[in-house]
Structure formats: structure tokens, C-alpha cells
Amino acid sequence: MSEQTTGPVQEFEYQAEMKQLLHLIVHSLYTHREVFLRELISNASDALNVARFRQLTDKSIVDHDAPLEVKIVLDKEKGTFSIEDTGIGMTKDELINNIGTIAKSGTLEFLHKMKSDQKMLDADLIGQFGVGFYSVFMVTDEVTIETRHADADSPAYRWKSVGEGKFTIEEIDRAKRGTKISFTLKEDAKEFSEDWRVKNIIKKYSNFVDFPVYVGDEKVNTVSALWQKRKDDLKDEELTEFYKYLSNDYQAPLGHLHVALEGSVNFKALLFIPETAPLGFFRETEYKGLHLYAHRILIQDDCKDLLPEYLRFVKGVVDTEDLPLNVSREVTQSSPVMGKINKVLTGKVLSFLEDWAQNDTEKYEKFYKNFSPLLKTGVNSDFSNKDKIIELFRFESSAAEKGKMTSLKEYVARMKAEQKEIYYVSGDSRESAERNPNLEYFKKHGIEVLYLLDPVDLFVVPSIHEYEKKSLKSIDKADVQVSKDEEKQEENAIQESMSKSFLSAFKEVLIDKVEDVIASKRLVESPVTLVVGKEGMDIQTERMMKMFNKDFTGSKKIMEVNLAHPLIKNLWDIYQQDTKDPFLRNCIVQLYEGALLREGNLTDPTAFLSRMTEIMEKASRK
Ligand SMILES: Nc1ncnc2c1ncn2[C@@H]1O[C@H](COP(=O)(O)OP(=O)(O)OP(=O)(O)O)[C@@H](O)[C@H]1O
């Protein structure tokens, strides 16, 4: 029965974006429609949490001692559904502002995209995208909300909407605190007025809600603090169920970690690593943190202070006895207890990953593929754990077949006695890294080079500097060490007189383009290559900087010339006859621009092509 109206009915219009969203929900979401119930229970549970907080500190709230619970009433004959909570309730402003806005940015965009991709829109995905309350319009055409806020002087209201266009608000006579949402189910959604169906859905999605959920007179959910159980008593099935409830993920987690600590800090934690990164995970600046409980009572469902940001893929709960119940967000942030928990958890998560890396490579590689771009940034932000994080790095390598990953430890174990540095090269793909002419020397001499194929590597690997006292060096740098013997042999092969004056001719032609031109000790098959000075930025890094900032110019490169290459020898012959030969000059520019092209930095391909035509014409003349 509805409460009496006590004021005029006011009409409101949804924002344009909201209308579009509602249209999509009503007309496009067909599968997993039962998640509307999860959304409604989750909102009720949030409201109950707020009420529980207020109960602790404010004796004057409406129905101070009312039990905190959710009641669902079904009428199979009439096909109706109602859900009522004794939570905090809503004021008029909250009804207008909170109901009627899209919870998460990007939701509409996402739904549109799914639709235009002609994908089957699956309502199970919406939990991740924050359609929230409005999912109810999948199963009904008209919704009524009756609510009274816990503040003693706050009136009660009825909100009514037929979905797509408008909603109305009127004042009503309701004495109870909390919110009741009721509606008649659509013809094709009548199943949701069946007891057994609704109970099954609650068990599936909402078993771990912190408050009793009743269907009729029967309490349906478990209401158990899983993390309080002993490690050995935890069953895989309930862990998976709990994880899904907690994270809104529809897949089982990749793994979990149970921590119980007693001593200078006391807490229990149940943490999960997801199987895959949720859509939009890496774009997300607004991510959800862990759930923080104190004495088994949820005090924050989004606590970002329990783990550093580079571990934000971890989902789960932390329950501590060291924080007071009525602790505010500001106090938790600066609390030394939080600092201690953060420190312990970070160490535990890193050791947990290290254990996978050592003992379950398949799982680790799955994890690594999904989350390593984030994990790796820890090297630049968490100095106390830097060494641990570095152990978790994996790379493709010239010593391993495509797709196989290797660690720095394994690399160092394979290093030859005379090798002093750890070498790496970056590239968009293994193939492009392997085509880098700077690699030729290393290939010829069987020196292992790591391939940095993840763009994030370029920002983090250079800051590793050293691993087991061996410095990490990009093979694009001019000062990579080439073994002494080798140097001698090469030097002998190079005619001293040839190199000096000839190279200065290169320099003269490329005067404003390169920093220097030197004889190469590392090239085998290519005529020239570009390298960066000791302090310079890696070539790939520079390319990325240019993508972010059009005005970024980068530094001048050093050109290395392979004096043993047949083409260079031919040019030497031309040079000896005429040091200013225009063909020679053209070839020098072409060689330089060819090197730019290879590294993806050629800015004027038209000039490059016409010069090439000119050179070919000359070369093909009889
Ligand atoms: N039963 C309720 N009691 C009190 N407030 C509610 C209730 N249901 C909804 N609300 C209010 O309406 C808002 C919008 O709910 P909605 O489900 O659309 O999004 P959300 O819960 O904020 O986001 P998400 O679904 O992503 O968690 C809530 O944030 C809350 O302020």
C-alpha cells in the first residue's frame, strides 16, 4: 500500500544523455536481465551502511533502533515486485541529483559502441559500467520510489517515472526511515515475481551482502565475513562467488591471497587478482580501491590507501581491529595503522606474484600480459620495493624464441664472463626490434639482447640503471662496450686514412642534422646506423615523446658508418676522385634519411622518394 500524498506533484525532465541511456537499456539489453536485482540490493546495502554509521554517532535519527535489513515482497498473481530497506533514505535533492544521473562517465559511450558493433548487449556487463538503478527499466515500464531520509526533520517523498521522458516527485506521509522501490513487472519479465527465481538470483549475486535480505519471511543470504575464516576452511567455490560479488566481474579470479596478521598491526585480508583487466582499466583514473572493514563493519568500500596505485588491479577486503568504527576518510588516510597495513600488504602481494613467477609460469604470464604495464610503474614510485618489482619483470629476448619470456636473473646467469653490461633494444614488435641494425654486432657475436616491446618499458627500464651490479644499456647508445680484441681487429680492417677525411665529408653534408659521424664497430650488414649519445634519450622513447608533443624535437644523433660495407667502399672510390661529387652527397643524405625511415622518424618521405629515383636513374644508366 502506498502512503498518502501530502504535497503537489512536481514534474522533472531527464538530461538528454540520461534519456539516451534509458532508451538503450529498455530496448537493447536482453541477456542477464536479472542483474537489476543485484543493483537494487547493492544500493540498499550502501544505504544501510551509511545508516549504520549514523546510528553510531547520532541518537536523533529516525527509527534509531530499527533493524538494518532488506525486505523483498513478491506477488505472483499481480506480477509485482518491491524492495524496501531501512537505510539512510534520500532527501528531495538527492532524488533529483542522484537518481537521474549516470554514475560513471563513459557508460553511454560504451553502450553506444557495443550497439554499433552489433554485439549482443549483455546486462551482466552493466555492473562494470554503472547503469545501476536504471537497470530496473529492463524489467518494468514504471517505477515508484518512496523514501524518507534519516534526518529527523526530513520529509518523505514519492518519485515516479515511466523511464524514457520524465519523472515526478511529490511529498508523502511516510513515517519510516529508508527506501522502498516498487513496480509491476513487464509481461516478459514475470519470472521475477517467482520466489524461487528471486532467491536463486540473490544467492548468485548478493550472497555476501552485509545485511540480511529477506524474501517474504525467509532470510536468503549468508551474511558471512569470509576473510575471518581460517585459510584452510575457505572453499574455492565460495571464494569465486565472493570475488564476483565484490568486483562485479563475471569471471572467476586468477588467484587469491589470504593474509592474517597479529602483532604490531592486526588485520585480516582477502585479496584477489582478476583473470583479465576490466574494460577501460588503463584509462581509468577513478578506480575502486579495496573494501576496508573495522571490526567486521564496512567503513569504506573504496579505500585507496591500502595498496599503492601500481597494484590497483588487486581487489578485495581488509578488516582491522586497529581502527575505530567511526573513523572518517581523512583520519584513515593519515592513520599510521593504514601505513603499516599498506606496507605489509604491498610486500605480500609482491611475494605472491614472485611465487607465481617461479612456480606457476603459465599463470604468471597471463597475469603479466594483463597487468604488467601498471605493475612496472612501481619501479618509479615505490623505491623501497624497487628490487622486488624488478625481479618481476619479464622480457622477450634474442636468446629465446618468440613469445617466450625471460627474467633479468636468467639473463645474467647466461652472460659470458667478459660481458659487463645487460643489453636491450626497444621496438613496436619483436620483428621491428630484430631489424634494428644496431643489433647486428650482438647477433654476430652471440650476445643476448632483451627486447623491450611494451611502451611502458621505455619509461621504466632506463630507471633500473643496474641489476646485480651490471648496468642496463640500450644498444642504441653510442657507448655500448665492444670487446677490446674485436675493436683491434676491426680497426685493422679500417684504413685509417680513409676513415678520417671520408667521414668528415659525411659530416659536412649532414652538418645541421647529426651531432657526429664515426666509424662503426658494431655494424655487420647495414651501411649506416644512428645512435644516441651517452646522455641522450632512447630512439623509441623520443618517438613516443613526439607523439605526445608535436613541438618536441629531440636531440641530434650520432651516425655510425660501416666502412667495410660494399656500398660505403664504392662511395669511398667516388670520394677519392671528387670530394664534392653531387651523387656522393645525394647518397649520404639518402643513407641518413633511410636510417630515419627505419626508426620511424622520417618527416619528408616525398623528398626521400624523389632522391631515390634520382639515384636509381644514375645507377641504371648504361
Ligand atoms: N535504496 C537506496 N537508498 C538510498 N539511496 C539510494 C538508493 N538507491 C539509490 N540511491 C541513490 O541513488 C544513487 C544512484 O544509484 P545508482 O545505482 O544509479 O548508482 P550508484 O549506486 O551510485 O553507482 P553503481 O551502481 O556504479 O554503484 C546512489 O548513489 C544513491 O545516492
TrEMBL record:
InterPro entries for the chain: HATPase_C_sf, Heat_shock_protein_90_CS, HSP90_C, Hsp90_fam, Hsp90_N, Ribosomal_Su5_D2-typ_SF
Positions of region (A): 1-329
Single annotated GO MF: unfolded protein binding
Binding positions for ATP per the UniProt entry: 39, 43, 85, 90, 98, 104-106, 128-133, 179, 329
A GO term from the CC aspect: cytoplasm
Ranges for region C: 544-622
Record localization: Cytoplasm
Record's keyword terms, sorted: ATP-binding, Chaperone, Cytoplasm, Nucleotide-binding, Stress response
Function as written in the Swiss-Prot or TrEMBL entry: Molecular chaperone. Has ATPase activity.
Similarity-based family: Belongs to the heat shock protein 90 family.
Subunit structure: Homodimer.
Name of the protein in its database record: Chaperone protein HtpG
Species: Vecturithrix granuli
